[in-house]
Specification:
Number of domains: 2
Distance between the termini: 6 Å
Largest sheet: 7 strands, mixed
CATH topology of the largest domain: Nucleotidyltransferase, domain 5
Number of helices: 13
Structural class: alpha/beta
Number of strands: 12
CATH architecture of the largest domain: 2-Layer Sandwich
Radius of gyration: 20 Å
Length: 358
């Protein structure tokens, strides 16, 4: 692709909370000293029961079955993009930038795997694709995550902190000229897991959590786990959740409402500890967790004396990660750095992502 200063890209994001597939059609423009963006159209396609089951159990498949699902999901993404383009009557799309859906993330063992075969996506959609962004950083000794912070730096650099409350909570900031970022706890992965026990996709507005009480022993156990994480700040994934968090949430002696309330308190505590004790901080907060008004109230009680929590317009709130993965694709096409060693712990900065169809 010929280098340009303007790119029209569809960014795809599927998060660990299994809310659905986020698609954002964006224009990213390079000016003399900065980047500008505009989200023109964006939608979330809620996963069917069948796809939610396939994605949530993908890690249990054998090799051949997983590879087949990789192609099947790539085709699913391609069909979704085709329908999006037709429905929204999009005139020009330069390429697709796809995060995929994380099935395995074990950087300590040297691998990470995001479902959604790029060649299958390209074949069905008819468009060039950038995909599989995390593996190069892992090969350089990094965590392969988080990758969003470079987008925070160039697209949302006016804030002291950028926080995403998704399946996993993560935060980024500038420290002495370097971008620093880390995952600070599980958010919607835990809350949605508990809501599913009541046959709900999520706890709308935290209504169940609001009815519960803090269970001190559970909060103490969660705090003990999070305290260890604060020392090293590893990237978090499904494996850690299932081994350490899920068993605590399966304690049937505690009501669902009390567990939800306790998880909200735990998230608020980790949010508080993740930001500076300085005052007058401007914190941009995005992700599905922001729509949980009770969770946000818990966080505000912790930080209101020193931080202003800024919630952007709904389109950015919901689709910031899809936007930023579109941006990561642009940086990859330009062969510019899209993964920062100061964030991931790799031994070098890199420009990650496989390109097909260009």
């Amino acid at each position: 692709m010929k280098l340009s200063n303007t790119y029209n890209v569809i960014g795809l994001m599927s998060g660990t909370s299994l809310d659905g597939l986020d698609m954002a059609y964006c224009t990213l423009t390079r000016t003399s000293d900065s980047w500008r963006f505009k989200i023109h159209e964006a939608i979330t396609i809620k996963y069917s029961f069948t796809w939610k089951h396939k994605l949530s159990t993908a890690h249990l498949l054998r090799g051949g079955e997983l590879l087949a699902l990789d192609v099947e999901y790539g085709k699913y993404l391609g069909e979704a993009v085709k329908n999006f383009i037709q429905t929204q009557k999009l005139k020009r799309v330069d390429f697709i930038s796809s995060h995929g859906h994380t099935v395995f993330h074990q950087p300590e063992r040297g691998f990470t795997f995001q479902l959604g075969q790029g060649n299958a996506l390209r074949e069905v959609s008819g468009l060039p694709v950038v995909y599989y962004f995390r593996s190069l950083d892992v090969s350089y000794g990094g965590q392969g995550a988080p990758l969003v912070p470079i987008g925070d730096r160039y697209l949302f650099g006016d804030y002291d902190y950028c926080v995403n409350l998704g399946g996993i909570g993560n935060i980024s900031m500038e420290v002495r000229g370097k971008r620093i970022a880390f995952d600070f706890c599980f958010v919607n992965m835990g809350l949605n897991y508990l809501a599913a026990k009541k046959r709900d996709d999520f706890d709308k507005d935290g209504q169940r959590a609001k009815q519960g009480k803090i269970n001190v022993p559970l909060l103490t156990r969660l705090n003990k786990i999070n305290r260890k994480l604060r020392k090293k700040r590893p990237s978090l994934g499904r494996e850690f959740f299932e081994e350490y968090i899920k068993p605590l949430l399966d304690d049937e002696s505690i009501s669902i409402e009390d567990k939800l309330r306790t998880c909200c308190e735990s998230v608020a505590t980790e949010f508080d500890l993740a930001i500076s004790p300085k005052r007058n901080l401007r914190v941009l907060v995005t992700g599905g967790g922001v729509l949980n008004s009770f969770l946000m109230d818990c966080i505000k009680l912790k930080v209101a004396h020193r931080a202003e929590l800024i919630v952007p317009p709904l389109q950015i709130l919901k689709f910031k990660e899809a936007l930023i993965f579109a941006f990561l694709g642009v940086l990859r096409v330009r062969n510019e750095i899209n993964s920062l060693k100061s964030v991931t712990g790799a031994n070098r900065d890199s420009s990650g992502g496989i390109m097909t169809g260009f």
